[in-house]
Input
Amino acid sequence: MARNPVTWLGSPTFPKAAHTALADTQLRQNLRKATGTIRARRAAAVAEMTDWEMLRVAGEQIKDDVLARLDTLLVQLEESVTARGGVVHWARDAEEANRIVLDLCRAENAREVVKVKSMATAEIGLNEALEAGGVQAVETDLAELIVQLGDDRPSHILVPAIHRNRSEIREIFQRRMGVEVSDEPADLAEAARTYLRRKFLTTKVAISGANFAVADTGSIVVLESEGNGRMCLTLPETLITVMGIEKLVPSWQDLEVFLQLLPRSSTAERMNPYTSVWTGVTPGDGPQKFHLVLIDNGRTATLTDSVGRQALRCIRCSACLNVCPVYERTGGQSYGSVYPGPIGAILTPQLVGDLTDPQAASLPYASSLCGACFEVCPVRIDIPSVLTHLRAEVVEAKGRTAESVAMAAAAWVFRESSRYEKAQKAGSLARFLARDGRITSLPWPGSRWTSSRDVPAPPAESFRAWWRKNRG
Amino acid sequence: MASAREEILRRIRAARVPRAAPVVRGYHREGPGGVELFAERVADYRAVVRTVPDVPEALKALAGKRIVAPAGVPREWLVGGVTWLREPLTTEELDRADGVLTGCAVAIADTGTIVLDGGEAQGRRALTLLPDYHVCVVRADQIAGSVPEALQRLEPTRPLTFISGPSATSDIELNRVEGVHGPRTLEVLIVT
Ligand code: SF4
Output
């Protein structure tokens, strides 16, 4: 079987990469500043919503329903998209998906395509595959452009260039665009606008991801900020959308939940500047050819794990990254995957599907189990429980190098975690007070755990206890 | 060999995911709404927002400009002194226009959002994307209180664009900066 490009070929295991990242003081400074800002703003955006917990519960339930009826809903989506003039393709893995997209580009004689930021296409390594096939993919999202022009790798789900500060971005733009520009964010944005304008107006094929697809109407939804998404979704003649099979919602009404949860969780806004919704092809408006590529790439395997499958509820908001003390210290690239941070630690190894792979096996240990990720997750993914579960599976998989690497990762986090003991407090307090594995009510700050009824307790075993038992 | 479609569906069925609990929609489906809240929320995005009794009067400020007017824009909005650009328009012509004037399908008070659906006075999506300035007229009765109320009023199979403030990015040090690829100035005129 071909290796899953969700992890980067030749990436060091987590403890090695983390060690290197920690030595980079500029990186840590950039990250601390950015995540600190967004944490405070997200908290304010969420505090405004008196029904936030009920929205989270609904988000969780809708996504669980999707996972339970995935076969029926996918077939329904296919029917609705086809009925409106779209063409649906299915891909078992990254290789198959890349081949489908490359063939579609070739059929349109496209040498260059414009792209809207998409985790699914990053996961399958589409840009590299297209390039190998003679098609140049131009990233149009500002942060993706910074990464692409800097010959760099992404380090965050939402803001792939979060590890770069404004003066580093200025340097990259001056070098690659050949323009003089200041390090004022507004000037940097203007430089990107000018650089991409002609491409938007002339490119014939665009590639996008999807935040949601509505099964009963066939509508596809993309949330964005800059307008590069609208450019790609509106101006070209052909649009190819690549989407994980779990990105469904059953009905149009269900979007009312996610259009409230996602912007506040990701960019801490009441609403992101632009959300586009389209259904198949609309005569006289936008691309007249529409292809939807549905990718599995490890998702059906993840679905078989009754504990791990909740990772498929993820709506890629990145809130869990922004609150994670391990992520803040190591940065996204240490995780060696397009999915970093807490969600990456549970999703990447499951998509790879091979816990004897040392790099994948080290990821579930890239956490101190403090529980902050669960607390902010808009679809209530119990990341600490999945981490504990996957750790047990790593030990069981008996890949000897994998296991020893995992132990090294655990040791690393253990050492580091004493430095951010404070972050662990809320979690251990909740565990201490839980009765029958459920938490009923807690004083603040623990009350933030219990503001929705019947919150499952964080994993009974604290990281330290687990470590003492398992280090052998 | 089975097709990718058959194999993926087979794998899903083989996973035997148990039925999920029914969805409890305990969240608020209605918001307080109102012109004031809507105006306040639009302004928070650093958009220009004005409550006007008379649209043509307010549009006189556009004199001397080349403004796109989609099909269905009321005749009285097309005030004198403005060069009104009407369809069919090429991408290049849209790119050179100074701005675009539209109505909207629905607005959302809670989030300060306007929604276009390509209907009367809105045109195809490129019209509101390429010009650097967008002025959108919102009638008070088009303002829904909440996101759920707004979605209920919309037809999902039409091409929809939800707009909340001018084009922006949070990609540089996670701070919102206005003005990237979409219109850098958004003006909302609320007619009461
Ligand atoms: S796991 Fe939850 S918090 Fe993390 S990115 Fe996914 S939805 Fe957001």
Summary: Chain A touches chain B through 96 residues (CB under 8 Å). The longest helix of chain A spans residues 25-47. The radius of gyration of chain A is 22 Å.
